[in-house]
Design brief:
The protein is α+β, with helices and mostly antiparallel strands and about 270 residues long. A 7-stranded mixed β-barrel has the order 1-2-6-9-8-7-5. β8 and β9 form a beta hairpin. Among the domains are: about 110 residues, Beta Barrel (Ku70, Chain: A, Domain 2), CATH 2.40.290; about 40 residues, no CATH class. The protein contains 7 helices and 9 strands, in the order ββββααββαβββαααα. It is extended, with a radius of gyration of 27 Å. α5 runs parallel beside α7.
């Protein structure tokens, strides 16, 4: 892995230099847009609406507009902002780990001790582990001031950027707030259904079947020389569960069927 950023974790008088690495990667197959008649790549031109010229990247700046006026913001302007120049991950508080709502998690990064900071790095990691606390931090990355959570994953400190509180929407679904009667028997059957699917989560047991099938499709088409003017494949049709119908099925009956289907599937796999 190659680090994307260098900085220091700071709390009190403690300073821990670290390197920052992306913790995740995208494995999706990249598909390009092409002309169906001749297979030529479709390109998008950076055309100016005022002069109608094609503009090179070196002459492109950013601007803020409110519909009537436009304020030009250059790369030099952005680089002059204090937050962008900061190379510190500032700890502002240590909170119980259970207080963090997963909906706020955004991107995840691994932190590696930089230089001679290993002792301070390990001290911070062990302290977070022993206290079951998460450090809430401020940091700047890619021209944005960010809120983050500094946590432990194995032997590594992990930084997760967090959404700001006003970026998380409040659900407003009036229908679900209306009183609904759920019987004890329905709860019992529902719990039995949950138990029939109960397992320990092992991420390695799951794979992206769509991407695997897409790669197989591309390899097969390439092997038979179908490398241009490829015929369009019909859209895959997803028919619903044949046991379902337009009519509303009684909840109790649906739970019974689900449990039976789960048990049958488990016995066949066994």
């Amino acid at each position: 892995m190659r680090s994307i950023w260098k900085g220091s974790i700071t709390f009190g008088l403690v300073n821990v230099p670290v390197k920052v690495y992306s913790a995740t990667e995208n494995h999706d197959v990249v598909l390009h847009q092409v002309h169906d008649a001749d297979g030529g790549r479709i390109r998008y031109l950076r055309r100016c609406e005022a002069c109608h010229q094609i503009i090179d990247f070196e002459h492109i700046d950013k601007a803020w507009a409110d519909g009537e006026t436009s304020v030009l913001v250059t790369e030099a302007d952005l680089a002059s902002l204090p937050a962008e120049r900061r190379r510190e991950i500032d700890v502002v508080e240590f909170v119980p780990s259970g207080q963090l709502d997963p909906i706020m998690f955004e991107r995840t990064y691994f932190l590696e001790p930089d230089g001679s900071s290993k002792r301070a790095y390990v001290l911070l990691r062990r302290t977070l582990e022993s206290t079951d606390r998460t450090a809430i931090v401020y940091f700047a990355l890619r021209q944005k001031t960010r809120l983050g959570a500094l946590r432990v994953r194995g032997d590594v400190l992990m930084l997760q950027s967090l959404l700001w509180s006003d970026e998380v929407r409040t659900p407003d679904f009036p229908d679900i707030s209306e009183p609904v009667v759920v019987t004890d028997r329905e709860l019992e059957l529902s719990a039995a259904l949950v138990e029939s699917f109960a397992a320990d989560f092992t991420p390695q047991d799951f794979a992206d079947d769509y991407q695997a099938q897409l790669r197989e499709l591309i390899e097969a088409k390439s092997a038979r020389g179908d490398t241009s003017n490829a015929p369009r494949s019909p859209s895959e049709r997803h028919d619903g569960d044949p046991s379902a119908s337009a009519d509303v099925i009684d909840l109790m009956e649906a739970l019974r069927r689900s449990i039976e289907r789960s048990r049958t599937g488990r016995s066949e796999m066994g």
